[in-house]
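pls design
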């Protein structure tokens, strides 16, 4: 029997993209899942679009924040409500390929993997872009230098690890969660197949200078690195980020 997978989706003013994201879940050939969407005070048509799907499929649930908490807080609300053995992540502007869950859960079960991720492809209104193909395993120390785990590809085993939540920061919440998990296991494992697509032309796209500013704060305030440790990690992270963005 397929174990239950809880899919965590935050939404905020996602009316232009969320139907595409939800449809990619509905098309999964792995069927034992629940989709937990937490809306972060959207002011467009996002809620009405979600409600259409909620009425059609009992596996989909909608929760609403009383105040805007950001993506991390919204994901945490869904994680709190999750009932699955596995916790998976998909943002409301990204999509999965049809066999994503089937391949990834099968891999995790057969190899007793606590945290896994996959390759993915960039896409936008102009069509498909380059592939992101991270290395096939990563440790805590290695992840400090480059967040190679695409949030839209990540799955963790809540029975092995217990429920893990994202730090309540506005940016880099996913990296904080992966580091929290990797602090307790040897490494995370990647699957060398493109199983998801990451949208690059939505409102999620960040100003590069702001990204670097958030990264510095992440090292100092969230991870708690010393100044010199932060400088080392920051320089390497910035270089790796430049290389990755050339793909």
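designed seq:
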């Amino acid at each position: 029997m397929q174990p239950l997978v809880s899919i965590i989706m935050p939404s905020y003013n996602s009316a232009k993209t969320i139907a595409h994201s939800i449809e990619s879940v509905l098309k999964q050939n792995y069927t034992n899942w629940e989709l937990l969407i937490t809306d972060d005070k959207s002011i467009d048509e996002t809620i009405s679009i979600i409600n259409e799907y909620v009425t059609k499929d009992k596996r989909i649930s909608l929760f609403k924040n009383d105040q805007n908490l950001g993506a991390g807080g919204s994901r945490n609300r869904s994680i709190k409500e999750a009932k699955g053995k596995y916790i998976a992540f998909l943002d409301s502007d990204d999509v999965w390929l049809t066999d994503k869950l089937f391949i990834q859960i099968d891999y995790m079960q057969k190899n007793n993997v606590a945290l896994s991720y996959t390759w993915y492809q960039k896409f936008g209104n102009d069509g498909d872009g380059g592939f992101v193909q991270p290395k096939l395993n990563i440790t805590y120390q290695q992840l400090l230098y480059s967040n190679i785990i695409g949030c839209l590809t990540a799955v963790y085993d809540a029975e092995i690890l217990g429920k893990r939540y994202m730090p309540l920061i506005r940016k880099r919440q996913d990296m904080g969660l992966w580091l929290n998990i990797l602090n307790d296991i040897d490494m995370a494992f990647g699957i060398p197949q493109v199983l998801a697509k990451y949208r690059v032309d939505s409102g999620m796209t960040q100003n590069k200078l702001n990204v670097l500013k958030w990264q510095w704060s992440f090292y100092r305030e969230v991870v708690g690195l010393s100044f010199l440790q932060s400088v080392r990690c920051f320089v390497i992270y910035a270089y790796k980020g430049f290389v990755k963005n050339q793909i």
